[in-house]
Hints:
- By secondary structure, the chain is α/β, with parallel strands linked by helices.
- The protein contains 17 helices and 23 strands.
- It has helices at 6-13, 58-64, 74-78, 93-110, 124-135, 153-159, 179-187, 202-205, 208-216, 301-308, 310-316, 324-330, 359-370, 394-409, 424-433, 449-454, 477-481; strands spanning 4-5, 16-19, 27-28, 30-32, 42-45, 68-71, 87-89, 114-119, 142-143, 167-171, 191-194, 227-231, 247-252, 259-267, 270-278, 289-296, 341-345, 348-353, 380-385, 415-419, 439-442, 462-466, 488-489.
- It has a 9-stranded mixed β-sheet with strand order 9-10-8-11-12-13-14-15-16, sandwiched between helices. Strands 21-20-19-22-18-17-23 form a 7-stranded mixed β-sheet, with helices on one face.
- α5 (124-135) runs parallel beside α11 (310-316).
Amino acid sequence: MSHWTAEQLQTITNGHWLVTPANDDVGVQDISIDSRSVGPGDAFFAIAGERFDGHTFLRSAIEQGASMLIVDQRHAAKTLKEPLVPVLLVDDTRHALQDLARAWRSVLRQKGIKVIAVTGSNGKTTTRKIIHQALSFQSRGYQSPKSFNNHLGVPLTLLNTSLTDRYVVAEVGSNHPGEIAQLADLLRPDAAVITNIGTAHIGNFGSRLAIAKEKASLLQYLTRGGLAIIPGDEPLLEQINVPNECQVVRIGKSGSCDYVLTSSTSNAQGIDFQVQHSLEQDVFGNWNVQDLCFSIPLIGEHNALNALCALPIANWQCIDISTPKFAQTLTGVQCANMRLQVQTHGPMTLINDAYNANPDSSKAAIKTLVNFSRHNEQRRIAILGDMLELADKAQSLHEELGQWIAENYHTKIDQIILIGPLAAHIATGIKRVKSDLQFTVYPQWNDALPTKIAQDVRETDIILLKGSRDTAMERLIPALTRNPNEPNTA
Length: 490
C-alpha cells in the first residue's frame, strides 16, 4: 500500500486545505473511495458516482478512522461539525486519485516492481488471477481486487500495491473507445496481455475491428523492453506493432504460436491441458521443444487458453515453468465469483456464470455445459438472460446465439429457459433451425418467476446460469436449490 504525507498529497493533487493538518506528522497509510472499507490512517476520496456521492459519507469515513478527507465540494465539508481530520479541497477527486496513482507508479518503477496489465473482451479476471498465482511461485505480489478495471479501479489497484510486493497484476477494461489508452497511460505496464477479441460492448464500438484497435492500444504504453502477449490465432492482431524494443509472444492453438495448446480435457474438478513451447535455438541452431502438462481447478477449454497467458509471464520473470512445483502452484488458483463457478446442492450441480454475458462468453458457457459429464437421468439445463450493451445488434446477436445452440447442441441440452425481452429472441434463432430443442420463454422478470422455474427443475439437474450483470441471474439460486442459504462451492 502507498504511504503519503499531508504535504505530498497537497502538492500532487494541487489542492488547498479547508481544514489544515494540526502538525507535520499527519500522514496517510492507504487510499479508499468507500467509507465502509476505510481503515485507521486512510485517506478518503469523496467521489460522486451514478448512485452514491461520497461527500454524503464524510462523517462515516471519519468514524471509521480516516486520517484525511479529499473533497471537490466545499459545501459538503463545511457542513461537517467539528471535523477531526484535515480536509483537502481539489478540483476533481477522480482526477486527484489518478494523479496520486501516477505518482505512485513512478515510485513502483524506481523500486523495480513490475506492472502487468490484462485486457480483452472476455477472461480478464480469470487470467489476472492465474497470472498472480503463477508469479506467486517465486515472489509476493498484488492483483486487482475484484474486477477493478475502470477509471477508479485501476488507480486504486496501483495505490494499494505495497513496496514489499515485486509485481502487480491489473485488469484494464473498456466500454467506449479511448478508455484503455487513458488507463494504460496511467499504468505504463511492463507486460501487457490481450486475452481475446470478442463482441463485448460491440454496441459502443460498432465492429470487432474497432474492439481490436481499442484492446491493442494497451500495447502502445509498454515500457522499454516490455512483453506483449496476444492471441496468436486472431487475424485482427496479425499486424500488431509494439514500441520500445518490446517482445511479442503469441499464444493459441495453431502451430505458429509460441505457446500452443495441444490438447485439453475437462471434468467437474477442472481442466487438464498440454502445452507445447519452443525455446530459443541452441548453439547448433536446433530448437528445443518442451511439452508441458498442467491442471487448473477451473472448467472450460477457454480457461486453458487463459492459463496459457500466464506461462510467458512466468518465463519472463525467470521462473522455470517445466518443474512439477510450478505445475502444482497453478492448481491453487481460485475460481472468480460467478464465472463458471461450480456449486453443488446435494445431487444438483449449478454452473454459476451470472457475472456477465456477451455472445462469445455465452457460447463458451454453453460449450462448458455440454461438456460437463452427466450420469444416469441427469439433465443439462441452460437458463439464459439478456446480453446487454449490444445496441442495434442486440436482436440479431441473440437470434444468432439461438441458431448456433440449436445447430450444434440440440441433442446435448435438455432444456433452455430464456428470461428477458432480449433473451426471448434466442427462441427465434432456435426455431429457425427447426430443431427439437425444448425451450421456455419468460419475456419479463417478476418476483414469482424463480418459484415457477424451480417447479420444472429436478434435484439431479446440471444447470447453467448465464446473463449480463444487470439481469442478476443469481436471484434464481435460492428457489432452484429450495434452500435460501448460501450455496456450497465445489
